[in-house]
Amino acid sequence: MKTVLVTGAYGFIGRNLVASLNRREDIEVMKIDSKNSLQELEEYAHKADFIYHLAGINRPENTEEFMTGNLGSTQHLINILNSTGKKTPILLSSSIQAEQDNAYGNSKRAAEEAVSAYGHQKGARTFIYRLPNVFGKWSKPNYNSVVATWCYNISREIPIQVNNPESEVKLVYIDDVVESFIAALDTLSGTYSSDYYDISRSFNVKLKDLEASLVSFKMSRNTLVISSLKSDFERFLYSTYLSYLPENNFGYDLEMKHDNRGWLAEFIKTEHSGQVFISRTKPGITRGNHWHHTKVEKFLVIEGEAVVKFRQIEGEEILEYPVNGLSLRVIDIPPGYTHSITNTGTTDVITLFWANELFNPEKPDTYYLEV
Q1: What is the pTM of this model?
Q2: pLDDT in tens, 314-324
């Protein structure tokens, strides 16, 4: 079993990394943050077979604290390791700001140089990651992440500020970061130059596009139209947005259209993959009796008993497909067949429907004709 020390374990990256490491039966995780004592740090550093050094400062009250929080904490950890005589591998979470000549960048670059020197002097393996903007669940809003801040604000209808909509930001997803970090522990290999490693996948996005995506996620509760989520970035961003919803606002209501047959409600709409809706139908009631030129659908009864009937619009033969909620069976609705679904039981029927296109009242492609 490997004993792993994570400093900054309760920060954004630390929490995600520890959550993944804790799933491993071959790893024991020791966690350190600012609340732990120096004695605890020394004890854990002596035990560790591998160290993730994620602790640091990026929003101090004065700029002098950058060196203390970034270089100072790193050098203290290295001093502890030097006293042990061990060649403990270290992975340092740094920032692309290390390439800039500012107080924060200088402190991160100095921490990198300290780790690199330790590795060369001791013959220990070191991994230095100059991370761009990382996004994902558990990042702190209104701190140092535009994605976290905008997800938090937009989900709460708090205005956001976009100074230059055309400017691009380089982003990496937290799961990719964690995967790369754990690969370093497992294989001691990766894409690197000297001691420097990169996350294999990144995303460059304009601020105006980032804002538009997040606003569309917000509006989807009203429109029911969900982004196609075709790209990995869109999927990751949507997951991230949902992680910032207020805890008292996870749920939202659907509009239920009631009539003498029961009710029907739209659930999810997509611009390219159609829509899903659900209905409750009373005993003896028939829905449908219409056909489509191009639109196709799928019916799935999940409760109750029913029969789906078809007739080719120019024919006379009626096809019947009995369905019930005890043995789930999906019924495809081809174009050119008038069709209906009738509740043949003594209890209400609950049916899920999928259509391959959004309903357009100006061009419904739905024509009444009894089966």
Answers
A1: 0.90
A2: 999 999 999 99
